[in-house]
Protein 1
Amino acid sequence: MPQLTKEELNTFLPHAGAMRLIDRVESWDDTTIHCCTRSHHDSANPLRHGTRLEAVTGLEYAAQAMGVHVGLLNRTRSTDGLIGYVGGLRNVVLGVDRLDDCPAELTIDATRLFEGDNSFMYQFAISSGGRDVMTGRASIFLKHVQS
């Protein structure tokens, strides 16, 4: 499928400004998505704690990639009033202490393992310059938000 730029991601993520962490979607299909970003080098990254961007913040990068994938797959379905939540994490392994120490861009890969009515399970992997940064599984749930 075609690549998506940061501006085109507006449709699929509720995040705005610097909190939109993914720079682009390189590729995607019915089960996988491959994203890239350099936002871990941004001194204005809102997930920083002082000058550090801890590796655990990779969970938000993975969640945004999964959210974009769910949005891409559901473009023909109305998602008004729906918001995605991470419901559970399993087998999370950190390969680094900090994301800001990764010199190359981050690549975020996610593969959908299961899809229910409003739930999804993904395997995800984040790497930088060929080095494993984080791997794990996440359950995503869509919930109707009351206005």
Protein 2
Amino acid sequence: MHITVAGNIGAGKTTLTYLLSKYFGFESLFQDNDQNPYLLDFYSDMPRWSFSLQVAFLQSRLEKLIQIRKAERNVIQDRTIYEDAQIFAPNLHAMGLMATRDYETYKQLFDTISGMIPAPDLLIYLRANIPTLVEQIQKRGRNYEDSIRLDYLKRLNERYEAWYETYNYGKKIEVAVDQLNFADNPEHLGIIINRVKGELYGLFS
């Protein structure tokens, strides 16, 4: 079984991944942002480092997906590989932060490996408004996120909305982060758990 948690920066993907993996007894796979050698450079100079950053993320997520397929374990994963290729890279290009030549190369690379990507059994999309995202980004206090541009965050949110509506790789559910405080409220977490169980195992799980 392979579950993925998707959502904008600050939506709570890491927290929900941890909580669900603990409940279901699944192995958790988290984004290794700190291991990306371009992240700090990217937030200080996006046009210069956007292509390198996205390629590094693509390689890392592809490696994890190959590991999942080989291991045949139940896994819940923080962020999908689709978000890199269908949200972050096109957003950078549209904002003029990734050169067209680099973007086309990145798209070709993703298209080449897309046949190797196993689709998740369930996608959980965390929908949050901009004030919630900003609050949660500030709360976690990651230094490299201090320089995130608000227009960058807003554009990502718009792309996430459109992407979720057209996502057709498999089952999906949406979680309204502004209404369900799953990090601090066990009842809210229980609502999400029941929805996940319903999708994976049916109404009478």
